[in-house]
Amino acid sequence: MSIARVTEITSASTKSFEDAVKRGISRASKTLDNIAGAWVENQKVVVENGEVSEYRVNMKVTFVLKDSK
Known about the structure:
Layout: E1 4-13, H1 17-28, E2 35-48, E3 51-64
């Protein structure tokens, strides 16, 4: 039986929401092992001078805990 944990992260990109998700998962995988999935909880843009300057996502990342054996 597997046990999983969920952690919340925020990631940003100047390109797109998709890029923000990819960057967040890439960075999380440097610290968290066994990432199984992520749920994008919300999206937000930063606007400067009437144009989108940054895309941000808040994600809940699920990772499976290693067996303690």
